């Protein structure tokens, strides 16, 4: 299929959006943190990540460059240790990967904590698209593979940006798959970033699982359908809301931006304000599943303001992140100045 006739299966049916007026889980307390990290094993590769992150932070701190942690993609909840089945969500990491590019273009170094195999900065333009990567290639008369002339102008721009980032060590890729891996790694990176204080920015765009299966109840091998009588009943526990620990303990001086995704426009602002009150951080960016690529709302303790693409910008293929990130950076600058006045 080609042109406007192409089928897009990822577009939600707005007529069947669910009303989510359920109360939020309470913020995690220190004892919740202690219990969670005591009862679950850290990923075996965590020490390697610790070294890589520390080196990256030290390198850019010496150059007085601000650093942003961008989280991206969705976490999984394995139902077996030797995982065959798991619970997942729809996130492909589009918001995080796109935002990371605009942070990089605005002078930040980026630690990109992402779901493994989700979208990455720069390569996102040519992966997970409706075109096969081979559609961008052509064969020359002498039998060599070349970029199709139709795409060369756009591709050279992306390639130059990517090379600049690579040559200047501006991007550190840190993967996760499960919710446990994400939380252990988030805590580690937050504690490493604490050395640069208010120059650190947290941009939490990952879709983190609300529920998990405790390690004590995870079977070792694949669940057999015959043994369960053809039914699978899973008793999940709520994931502790560690954003409160990030704000209060792991990164108390840094600016923290979280996202609130809803499907019901009538509760989006209420939910966003509720998150600010509950976790006491600086900014919630609210967005609706149906319109998240075209508009978001910035919710702070004192204000709420919509950021929208015009129809001309939508038609031109402008990323809404090109509007979001400069505004976040201005708020980060204000936060840094405020912390300096407070002697932090």
UniProtKB/TrEMBL annotation:
Coiled-coil regions listed: none
A GO cellular component annotation in the UniProt record: cytoplasm
Tree of life domain: Eukaryota
One biological process term in Gene Ontology: acetyl-CoA biosynthetic process from pantothenate
An annotated Gene Ontology molecular function: phosphopantothenate--cysteine ligase activity
Signal peptide: none
Domain DNA/pantothenate metabolism flavoprotein C-terminal span(s) in chain numbering: 65-116, 199-301
Pfam annotation, one family: DFP
Similarity field: Belongs to the PPC synthetase family.
Protein name as it appears in the record: DNA/pantothenate metabolism flavoprotein C-terminal domain-containing protein
Organism: Ogataea polymorpha
Lineage: Eukaryota, Fungi, Dikarya, Ascomycota, Saccharomycotina
């Amino acid at each position: 299929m080609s042109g406007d006739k192409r089928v897009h299966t990822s577009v939600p049916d707005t007529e069947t959006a669910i009303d989510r007026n359920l109360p939020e889980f309470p913020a995690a307390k220190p004892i919740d943190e202690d219990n969670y990290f005591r009862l679950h094993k850290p990923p075996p590769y965590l020490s390697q990540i610790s070294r890589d992150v520390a080196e990256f932070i030290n390198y850019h701190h010496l150059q007085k460059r601000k650093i942003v942690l961008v989280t991206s993609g969705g976490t999984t909840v394995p139902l077996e240790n030797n995982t065959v089945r798991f619970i997942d969500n729809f996130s492909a990491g589009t918001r995080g990967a796109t935002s990371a590019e605009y942070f990089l273009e605005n002078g930040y170094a980026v630690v990109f904590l992402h779901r493994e195999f989700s979208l990455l900065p720069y390569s996102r333009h040519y992966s997970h698209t409706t075109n096969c990567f081979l559609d961008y290639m052509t064969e020359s008369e002498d039998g060599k593979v070349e970029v199709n002339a139709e795409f060369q102008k756009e591709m050279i721009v992306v390639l130059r940006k990517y090379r600049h980032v690579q040559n200047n060590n501006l991007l550190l890729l840190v993967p996760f798959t499960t919710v446990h891996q994400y939380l252990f790694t988030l805590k580690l990176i937050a504690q490493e970033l604490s050395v640069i204080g208010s120059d650190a920015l947290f941009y939490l765009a990952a879709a983190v699982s609300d529920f998990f299966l405790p390690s004590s109840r995870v079977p070792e091998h694949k669940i057999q359908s015959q043994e369960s009588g053809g039914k699978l009943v899973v008793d999940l526990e709520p994931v502790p809301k560690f954003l409160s620990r990030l704000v209060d303990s792991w990164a108390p001086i840094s600016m923290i931006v979280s996202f609130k995704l809803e499907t019901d426009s009538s509760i989006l602002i209420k939910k966003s304000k509720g998150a600010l009150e509950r976790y006491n951080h600086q900014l919630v960016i609210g967005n609706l599943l149906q319109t998240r690529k075209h508009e978001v709302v910035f919710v702070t303790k004192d204000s709420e303001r919509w950021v929208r693409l015009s129809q001309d910008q939508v038609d031109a293929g402008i990323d809404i992140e090109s509007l979001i990130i400069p505004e976040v950076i201005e708020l980060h600058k204000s936060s840094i100045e405020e912390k300096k006045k407070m002697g932090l």
